[in-house]
Write a structure and sequence with these properties.
The complex is a heterotrimer of chains A (518), B (247) and C (202). Chain A is of the alpha/beta class and 518 residues long. Chain A has helices spanning 37-41, 65-73, 76-98, 103-118, 121-134, 145-158, 170-174, 177-183, 193-200, 217-227, 237-254, 280-286, 304-318, 348-352, 368-372, 374-379, 390-400, 417-421, 428-441, 447-460, 463-469, 473-479, 491-494, 506-514; strands spanning 6-7, 13-14, 28-29, 32-33, 138-142, 163-166, 187-190, 257-260, 264-266, 271-276, 290-296, 300-301, 326-330, 338-344. Chain A folds into 3 domains: 6-35, no CATH class; 65-349, Rossmann fold (3-Layer(aba) Sandwich), CATH 3.40.50; 458-514, no CATH class. In chain A, a hairpin with a 2-residue loop joins strand 3 (28-29) and strand 4 (32-33). Chain A starts with 5 loop residues before the first strand and ends with a helix. The relative contact order of chain A is 0.12. With 247 residues, chain B is of the alpha/beta class. Chain B has helices spanning 9-14, 16-28, 44-48, 56-66, 77-86, 94-102, 106-113, 134-139, 155-160, 184-187, 189-205, 216-229, 238-242, and strands at 2-5, 32-34, 71-74, 103-105, 127-131, 167-168, 210-213, 234-237. The longest helix of chain B is centred in the C-terminal third of the chain and has 17 residues, at 189-205. Chain C is built from 7 helices and 12 strands. Chain C has helices spanning 3-14, 36-46, 62-68, 120-123, 128-131, 148-151, 156-159, and strands spanning 50-51, 74-76, 85-86, 101-105, 108-110, 115-119, 134-139, 144-145, 162-166, 171-172, 180-181, 188-193. Chain C has a 6-stranded parallel beta sheet with strand order 1-12-7-4-2-3, with helices on both faces. The chains are: A alpha/beta (518), B alpha/beta (247), C alpha/beta (202). Chains in contact: A-B, A-C. The interface between A and C is large, with 104 and 82 residues.
Chain lengths: 518, 247, 202
């Protein structure tokens, strides 16, 4: 390593560029950036708020999202930062949207292109395979997560690979790829900063675009001091990011293979496209000789002209930037290199057959639905205990395991903001509603809830019994919340006041004041 | 016109003044308003929780109660959304379809059907924050949601602007869900109440004296949240303001 | 059956039986900016890139020379300026690890987003654009297209094996949303407008 580096006065590594002019947040003294200004601008705390951990997952048992969400809310610094950070992304998205007069037309086009492609998925995959193969890409097909991991393992074994650098991919999370590779003794190094933080903390990503968004800088400082040897008392974000860069660069240079996901595949050219901001996917793809890309079969679009629609929408929806810093198009291996694409099904072809839910396959994993979701912002992504969290997770996770994720479709107020920000116009909130019906029909909802709803249905369909039950407002107070309470606890009043009972119901007022007419 | 008045269970039990205001307002506009006395609910609590079959009896009762009117009007966006968009636990006979298509939420009835251009009896010299419930905003399309790049419109603001003295404040997150969400409010009560705290705080910081809404259920939840965290805020249904409530 | 056949058979069995025609995608170019160059500059600036204004007269490369004046290792893939690390002599990619500045020419640029397209033909060794600490891109102002719809009609996407839109430098906001340049790739990206010479490579 001979990268330019300087020792600063306090001994921390700091690259000259980190003292850059033009950074509005930088504090400059004598022409030099004042180091760690952000760290010192915050009040010193002896004990930073500990990071709330995610849902407790017990095998196949239904994940208790509410329990984990309550713990996240009980950590106010985390919850506040998380909510404000993601709301900021939502606002930046809105700003970008207002700069594009044809925004709603682009969303309709994106939706129509995806629906067309999904209804001709076999043809376009076939076309992609033929074109990619003709360009020298090795194309593989994996029915499920296990087969995906085996295929990649075989490629790595054939090439004598000991270490693999990779960029962020939700598909590899879905496949439990890192755990598998650990079991066969191949070192996997995540190169996206957020994903690297999560890997070093042995925690799943909490968001599809910003994997460590639930962590405070103090949490990251704790992880990095433990794993890459940073100063445990230094939580300056520039320092932490720079330390990670310096620690990861040698691993990148020495890796035997690189792996990426893929945001899009273009059938007509056999191209796959990777969108990142850090340049880490391009390092992963272009430094080692061997590049493997794992891509879900639903990521395909027919032609290059369609790509324009999606690239214009993706980062604007995700982060509120016009495009990701890097949008990389891979059409074939570089000279002397080797390129593989693994096309992964893992439940997608089955989902295609679900009449109410197949359009969830339009998803381009921008995370806009998570950023706008008021429940997600206050719960943290790890509370969902699943690969996909937030609104899109509520409608995808049950397709993987209806029992385990049976509570998730209830983690929504059905407010519908998710569907409105979705760049491919998935009717997310309607699918959440539909999943509740399906889960009830499949008997995946607790008996107590079932009994309460049955009782409510009986009472509400019998006017006389209903009137007797709520004859007066104070008895209504006792009865009405019970319609929606399944466990006998008064959940209404735990964290909010119950309504003030009026002196009479509307029903009795009407009887007294308009009774003669009725 | 002969109007069937639908007063959802929460309003009946806890906010009779909202029902009274709705009734009086429709009568002021010269309509014959009938309150079918056997009404209970539209079936939404069961259906929203996925128990659609358990909603069938309630939905059938709703249709029996409200057949034969020119319009059915309710001061509750979420209930009207259920009736119009999701009341499908029972066979969709012509009678059922007829009732569903004639059911209107009060604001849209006044704005789209009645096209009311003045409320000369109404004065409300207060700073109000408007809360569009998610059902009215994104399902019944009372107003343009902030997520969409389309021309701005707002039916409740159109109506309220005709009330003398009213002043609107703009919260930072104008159409963030307040966290009521029907059964969500108890199934996920911690998240629900946190959303409620944030909602009422946002309106308070914007300087609102009142939060006004077309949905009493959201207001009931927000009031409970405001009282718990000590945010001084008053709550009022849009029907009350339009009917001339002074405070 | 092979996995391929299995998957395709499962897809065929489950294809939604609905008619969804492929829509026509307009070019959305009815209202182009008056100057593509200044639109590009604005977009580039927003994304954290630096536009090097050329001097009105004299040495057009002066801003570039000033940038690299103190650099130890400069790797240039353009004929306009020579570096001290010959890209043609790079045996293994790792040899680029110590490059301070890489200088390349963009195939073209996009005004809408402030992106420059760097392809394998422009970079010679793809990794140079990521391993270098800083990247300087020469751009012919005639090579700017208005938006991404026009961009994807360009031939580079059909005849290059690798082509990447760079829009500003490497960036991350993964820790509390604090923007950092140089997360993994280049710490800065500068664009200098230089008319394309009669370069036989292009």
């Amino acid at each position: 390593m001979s990268t330019v580096r300087e020792q600063t006065d306090d001994g921390a590594m700091l690259h000259p560029e980190q003292r850059a002019e033009g950074d509005p947040d930088a504090i400059i003294r004598d022409g030099r950036r004042l180091d760690h200004a952000e760290g010192t601008s915050k009040p010193l705390r002896a004990h930073p708020e500990p990071q709330p951990r995610g849902a407790k997952v017990h095998g196949n048992r239904p994940v208790d999202q509410q329990e984990a969400a309550a713990r996240f809310i009980a950590a106010p610094e985390h919850e506040k930062m998380h909510d404000e950070r993601l709301w900021d992304l939502r606002q930046k998205r809105d700003r970008e949207m207002h700069g594009i007069p044809e925004w709603e037309e682009l969303r309709s086009l994106a939706s129509a292109i995806k629906e067309h492609t999904l209804t001709h998925l076999d043809e376009y995959l076939d076309q992609f395979e033929a074109n990619a193969s003709a360009n020298g890409i090795h194309v593989h097909w994996a029915r499920d997560a296990a087969e995906h991991n085996q295929i990649v393992h075989a490629i790595l074994r054939d090439n004598g690979v000991k270490s693999l650098i990779k960029s962020k991919s939700m598909l590899t999370e879905e496949c439990g790829f890192r755990h598998y590779m650990a079991s066969v003794g191949i070192e996997v190094i995540e190169t996206d900063l957020g994903e690297r933080i999560q890997q070093l903390d042995n925690e799943d990503p909490s968001h599809v675009v910003v994997p460590a968004v639930h962590k405070l800088r103090t949490d990251v400082a704790a992880v990095f001091s433990r794993t890459i040897g940073t100063d445990p008392n230094n939580s300056d974000v520039h320092y932490l990011a720079e330390a990670q860069r310096e620690a990861t660069r040698p691993l990148i240079l020495n890796a035997d293979a690189g792996m990426t996901g893929g945001n899009f595949m273009v059938a007509e050219t056999g191209t796959f496209v990777v969108c990142t901001n850090e340049g880490n996917a391009d390092l992963s793809a272009n430094v080692p000789k061997l590049h493997i890309a794992s891509i879900g079969i639903e990521k395909i679009i027919p032609r290059l002209e369609h790509l324009a629609v999606f690239v214009r929408l993706l980062s604007r929806s995700a982060l509120g930037s016009p495009i990701t810093q890097y949008t990389s198009h891979f059409r074939g291996p570089r000279a002397g290199g080797e390129m593989h694409v693994v096309l992964v099904d893992n439940g997608r072809s089955e989902r295609l057959g679900l009449a109410e839910f197949w359009t969830s396959l339009k998803c381009i994993r921008c995370g806009a639905c998570m950023n706008t979701c008021p429940v997600y912002r206050r719960s943290g992504g790890l509370s969902y205990g699943a690969t996909y969290s937030g609104p899109i997770g509520l409608i995808i996770d049950p397709t993987f395991n209806a029992r385990k994720y049976s509570n998730l479709p209830y983690a929504s107020s059905l407010n519908g903001s998710c569907s409105n920000v979705c760049p491919v116009k998935i009717n997310i909130h309607e699918q959440i509603y539909a999943w509740r019906r399906v889960l009830v029909e499949q008997h995946e909802v607790p008996l107590a809830k079932r009994a309460a709803m049955k009782a409510a249905g009986v009472l509400l369909s019998r006017p006389a019994a209903y009137r007797a039950a709520i004859a007066a407002a104070d008895t209504a107070l006792a009865h009405l919340p019970r319609f929606v309470i399944y466990n006998g606890l008064n959940a209404w009043g735990k964290h909010r006041e119950v309504p003030h009972p009026p002196k009479e119901t509307f029903h009795s007022w009407d009887h007294a004041n308009r009774g003669a007419k009725r | 016109m002969r109007i069937g008045l639908f007063i959802p269970c929460y309003i009946d039990a806890f906010f009779p003044e909202v029902g009274i205001a709705t009734l009086e307002l429709l009568e002021r506009l010269g309509h014959e308003v009938v309150y079918p006395r056997d009404q209970t609910c539209c079936g939404q609590p069961m259906a929203n929780s996925g128990f659609n079959a358990d909603a069938a009896g309630t939905e059938a009762l709703f249709v029996r109660n409200f057949s034969g009117f020119d319009y059915v009007v309710a001061p509750s966006g979420s209930c009207v959304h259920h009736v119009r968009d999701n009341l499908d636990a029972i066979e969709q006979t012509d009678q059922v379809k007829e009732v569903r298509s004639r059911t209107y939420e009060l604001v849209e009835f006044l704005h789209d059907i009645e096209k009311v251009d003045a409320f000369p009896w109404a004065k409300f010299p207060h700073r109000v924050g408007l809360h569009n419930s998610c059902g009215t905003l994104r399902r019944l399309k009372h107003a343009l949601p902030s997520e969409l790049n389309e021309p701005f419109f707002s039916k409740p603001i159109d109506l309220l602007s005709k009330v003398e003295g009213i002043e609107f404040v703009k919260p930072a997150r104008p159409d963030e869900c307040c966290g009521f969400g029907g059964t969500f409010s108890v199934f996920e009560e911690v998240v629900s109440t946190k959303m409620g705290y944030d909602k009422v705080s946002d309106h308070a910081q914007a300087g609102a004296e009142y939060i006004v809404s077309a949905d009493s259920s959201c207001l009931m939840h927000q009031q409970g949240c405001a009282e718990r965290i000590g945010v001084p805020m008053k709550f009022i249904h849009i029907a009350q303001i339009l009917n001339g409530a002074s405070a | 059956m092979s996995s391929r056949d299995d998957i395709l058979a499962a897809i065929r069995a489950n294809l939604p039986r609905v008619d969804r025609p492929l829509p026509h995608v307009p070019l959305f170019d009815d209202d182009p900016p008056t100057s593509l160059l200044s639109a590009f500059k604005d977009s580039l600036h927003r994304m954290g890139g630096v536009f090097l204004d050329p001097p009105a007269s004299g040495d057009l490369l002066a801003p570039l020379r000033a940038k690299i004046a103190d650099a130890k290792i400069v790797c240039s893939t353009v004929p306009e300026i020579a570096g001290n690390r010959d890209i043609a002599g790079v045996g293994v990619v790792r040899d680029l690890a110590d490059v301070d500045f890489a200088i390349v020419r963009a195939s073209f640029a996009v005004a809408e987003t402030g992106s420059v397209l760097l392809s394998d033909a422009d970079l010679r060794v793809n990794a140079v654009a990521y391993l270098a600490q800083h990247l300087i891109v020469l751009l012919d102002p005639a090579d700017i297209v208005v938006n991404l719809h026009h961009a994807y009609r360009r031939p580079e996407f059909r005849d290059r094996h690798y082509a990447c839109f760079h829009t500003g430098p490497s960036a991350t906001a993964d820790i509390e949303g604090v923007l950092i340049h140089g997360a993994q790739g280049v710490r800065s990206l500068s664009v200098l407008p230089v008319v394309r010479a009669g370069d036989p490579n292009h």
